[in-house]
Amino acid sequence: MVNDKLQNKKLYALSSENRKFSFSLPLKQTIRIGKRNYEVKLKADEKFGTYILWKNRKYPVEIVSSRQNKYEILFNDISYTFTVETPFSLQRMKVLNSKRGKVEKEFIKAPMPGKIIDVLVREGTTVLRGEPVVILEAMKMQNEILSPVNGIIVKVSARANTNVMKDDLLVEIKL
Amino acid sequence: MKISRILIANRGEIAVRIMKTAAIMNIETVAIKTAVEPGAMYLSSADVIYDNTDDATDIPVFLDIEKLVAIALKTKANAIHPGYGFLAENAYFAQKCIDNKIIFIGPSPDAIYKMGNKTIARKIALAGGIPMAMGSEGNLANEEEAIVMAEKIGYPVIIKAASGGGGRGMRIVRKSDEMEKMFNIASKEAEKAFNDPSVFVEKYIENPKHIEFQILGDTKGNVIHLGERECSIQRKHQKLLEEAPSGALDDKLRKKMGTMAVQIAKAVNYHSAGTVEFLLDSEKNFYFMEMNTRIQVEHPVTEIITGIDLIEQQIRVANGEALSFKQEDIKLNGWAIECRINAEDVQAGFAPDPGKIESIFMPSDPCVRVDTGVQAGSSIVASYDSMIAKLIVKGKDRKEAIKNCKMALDKVWIKGTKTTLPFFRMLVRNPKFLDGNFTTAFIENLDKYYLNSEYEEMLAAWLATKLFVEENLNDDSISVDFKHGKEMSPWLLNKRINQF
After folding, report:
1. Which residue of B126, B150, B170, B226 is surrounded by the most CB atoms within 10 Å?
2. Same structural domain for residues B167 and B232?
3. Can you give B158-222 as a three-state secondary structure string?
4. What is the pTM assigned to this prediction?
5. Cβ-based contacts of A112 with chain B (< 8 Å)
């Protein structure tokens, strides 16, 4: 059934920075640049692992994650996140986005695993954008974790001298 | 006593580098096998491997002075090379070696101590009439004292660790109400990193270039310099790319700064290889910053333009030999650039990305030198630095060196961790970098840290779409988990790919 739906249609890959790439179905093994079509191949071997071959050059690729229609792809050492949408789901997404209210809270998470050296804020303090909130040590370097927003600290989960994993919640800020 | 066997008190690429020269000089080497990296590449270059994998102590062996001396004695090594980092600038370690009749390949404990203590180094430079940024005479007891001093010399100021180096324990303060927070951060970081919480402040030179001079001295009192290195491409005081020479210096300024650098070294009777660091402002005024009393990560760029093997010179000087060349014999030929390829996620603000290197290929070309301690299967472990390899490229001039660098960067292939490669691929195309018009503020002023190639993004988008099509069109035919491309076995993946 899905098969029928997708035939002779288009798919859109939306990047996290809202760039849109459209591809006709059935998906071709070529990419058009200007007036020419260039063959693109996904390959893998023991020596190089997975790679894409394009214009006589190999590019390393890895599929970091895929969840439903969301894909994170590491291409030539740069990670890209796309959601792949059909014309129908794209339309639905636009409608949903326009209805959604604006964000009210910012969650600061640990960008990498490490040890909390110091917590520089308390619940109730006001922070400005760019102000350090937590000091996290990872790989011998002390990193100041900065507030990306102006707001009031509503919750402090980080505790000095404890270890955190990547993406652990450190601080919650109300905008 | 001549050096016949060297214990390498280090790991990674610098251990490999030292062993390479030792082999040419017919000197044996001892490497230490640790539980953290029992299969590390540097072990395969050593003549003797000391197995320390059963060490149950908490501190790394490369920081354990008593243990290192004991290992040297046990393995009959009559010299120790400390490399960089770890104990390379620890005067007590150098003294301990001497006390045990082991040759320390580096300067005297006295020189290490004086230059290692920034407040003493400042006094020495001041006495020698070396230009310096205004600052406190000695260490500061608390933030109140720091505020008083900062008011005197004017904001912005930089707080530095007295025993510091390598960029740690440093904080810039732009107004007095930031002082308390920054003073405490700097002091805490200094205590943790250097076992000494004392800090001082000096005037912060805005947007300078970081220029350093390579020094070489022997035990007969001869000291010369081998020209400068441009190290302004740095982030949080961690260098990412270095070049030699620097486009900012002409022969006159080079001579002036070089003479000052030699003078500082002579003031502490310096022997072995060392580096005198300066800041150069937009008016070409220069200020002494510090002296590093060790071999540096970026030493290869100097080796390439001078043709001198710095590790060989360190060993010869440690053997008591006089330098076989004079200042006027040193000629700078061509241009060299070093890119530090680290396991870091450029897109996440250069966050370390430790992991296993699944495959690594570095270009082999007459204009390319690669210094690395990593091979396919090696792990970049969180307990050490994130260095994967140093890509060193030369050319007859800066333009050619950059062109060769661009070519070499496209040939580097590393899978398993994210790397600083996208940063360098951007850098060699950045107009400001290309015309040499950059300062230490270069990276923080960038809009984007990596190359944004629309073709590459389009190819990635194509791949995402392909995966989506596959999952939605062929969902009954395949039950392979495609989510973890990293761990997937090659034959499964092949099967998967062949279905297209």
Report:
1. B150
2. no
3. EEEECCCECCECCEEECCHHHHHHHHHHHHHHHHHHHCCCCEEEEECCCCCEEEEEEEEECCCCC
4. 0.84
5. 348, 351-352
